Amino acid sequence: VPLSETEPYINAHTHGVPQSWPGQLDFQVVVNVGPESCATIFWNLVNRVKEGERFKDGDRVHEVLQQPVLLKKFPEGHPDRGDVLRVLIPNSKADPPTLPGDEGHDTENLPWGEAPGHDQVPGCER
């Protein structure tokens, strides 16, 4: 779902993960990536949950993309939906790529700038 007519960012999230796998939050991506990239991220995470792995706030997860991603807990933005684990994608312009909290992480010079996030919560990068 595009955030607005002028912002190309999307708010894509899974539905039903907590109901199917108790203790696991739904996943969210709020970035300007295509549907295929979102699907890849979600399938990689959900398939690992199906295998018994559980993810939580602050986890750095490898083998979702080429570089590790960071999962951060955020309110989904709808009153009846609760929290989600937002997938933060590394700043691939850095060498090596960095995530928030990494030494040298530079939000000023991301290749795409800061993304606003569905509920305007800082920390979502695309």
Descriptive overview:
The protein is of the alpha+beta class and 126 residues long. The chain contains two helices and five strands, in the order βαβαβββ. It has helices spanning 17-20, 35-50; strands at 12-13, 26-29, 60-61, 69-75, 83-88. A five-stranded mixed beta sheet has the order 1-2-5-4-3, with helices on one face. The longest helix is centred in the middle third of the chain and has 16 residues, at 35-50.
Which helices and strands occur, and which strands form pairs?
Elements lengths: L11 E2 L3 H4 L5 E4 L5 H16 L9 E2 L7 E7 L7 E6 L38
Parallel strand pairs: 2-5
Antiparallel strand pairs: 1-2, 3-4, 4-5
Poorly predicted ranges: 109-126
Largest sheet, strands/sense/barrel? 5 strands, mixed
End-to-end distance: 15 Å
Q: What value does the average pLDDT take?
A: 75
Walk across the major sheet and give the strand order: 1-2-5-4-3
**What level of helicity do the residues show?**
10-25%
| Annotation field: number of helices | 2
Based on Cα principal axes, name the global outline. globular
Q: Radius of gyration in whole Å, from Cα? A: 14 Å
Which structural class is indicated by helix and strand composition?
Answer: alpha+beta
Determine the strand fraction and express it as a percent band. Answer: 15-25%
Taken in chain order, the helices and strands follow as EHEHEEE
Query: How many strands in all?
Result: 5
